[in-house]
Specification:
Blueprint lengths: L2 E10 L2 E11 L4 E5 L6 H8 L7 E6 L2 E2 L5 H6 L2 E3 L12 H13 L9 H5 L2 H11 L14 H13 L5 E5 L7 H14 L4 E5 L3 H7 L2 E6 L2 E6 L1 H6 L1 H6 L8
Parallel strand pairs: 3-8, 3-9, 6-7, 7-8
Antiparallel strand pairs: 1-2, 1-4, 4-5, 9-10
């Protein structure tokens, strides 16, 4: 098992954002977490990645308990994530953003007067990631000049610098048109090779294209889990989405 949550509870001043949530993410699968607005999806992501500590319950990564570790230690153990809100260095080039992220893995940022030649040894890794996320042609452009979809590609590239075994993607197609959505679907398929991917996603066409299995949240609890064909026909899921602009 790549990633497990057992009876996760997160309370905020008496309000339970997640309430006894358990799920199992199989190694090598693409697993989607869906649910109507306010279902607890982002809170669950923050619990899985260490940005929040659970009130109760536990999270395990390849069998090791990680819910009491800080996020940087969780990254070192093989779990990385992207965020719904763009978080790149706008005044740096695409390649520069990747180089900074790669240096964080090697420890170079903690060393003063580091020869430029040592940083240049990271070039082949940067080239590989640029190719993987389809940004070779844009590598010298400023991040501020990228389109919304290209920034998403860069953010995923930054996540890949940590060499994750498990990659969490928070709303990777949010705010995109059909062309951008298609590009991200292809990108997720690419980065999922040899990795486990967990994504929160509102676009059900994206979920149907990518997800091996789906977990549905409602009111902070797991409503059901299964394959898309099962989820699509489940009357509980249809009822949960009533009033939402979503086509199941």
């Amino acid at each position: 098992m790549a990633l497990e949550a057992h009876h996760l509870v997160k309370e905020f001043r008496g309000f339970r954002a997640t309430d006894d949530v358990s799920l199992e993410i199989l190694e090598g699968e693409v697993h989607a977490i869906i649910g109507p607005n306010g279902a607890g999806k982002t809170t669950l992501f923050n619990l899985l990645s260490g940005f929040l500590r659970p009130t109760a319950g536990e999270v395990r990564l390849f069998g090791e308990r990680i819910d009491r570790l800080p996020p940087y230690e969780i990254v070192r153990r093989g779990l990385s994530r992207s965020f719904q809100i763009s978080s790149v260095f706008q005044s740096m080039s695409v390649r520069g953003n990747l180089m900074v992220a790669l240096q964080s893995v090697t420890g170079l940022p903690h060393q003063f007067w580091t020869p430029l030649s040592r940083q240049e040894t990271l070039g082949p890794q940067a080239d590989q990631i640029l190719a993987e996320v389809g940004l070779e042609a844009a590598q010298h452009r400023l991040a501020a000049d990228l389109s919304h979809g290209e920034k998403r590609q860069l953010e995923i590239g930054i996540s890949l610098t940590q060499q994750p075994k498990v990659l969490l993607l928070d709303e990777p197609t949010s705010g995109m048109g059909s062309e951008g959505v298609s590009r991200v679907i292809g990108l997720v398929r690419q980065v999922a090779r040899g990795r486990t991917v967990v994504l929160v996603e509102h676009n059900m066409s994206v979920v149907s294209e990518l997800a091996d299995r789906i977990t549905v949240l409602q009111y902070g609890q797991v409503l059901t889990s299964g394959h898309y064909s099962d989820i699509q026909r489940d009357p509980r899921v249809i009822e949960a989405y009533l009033g939402e602009e979503v086509q199941l």
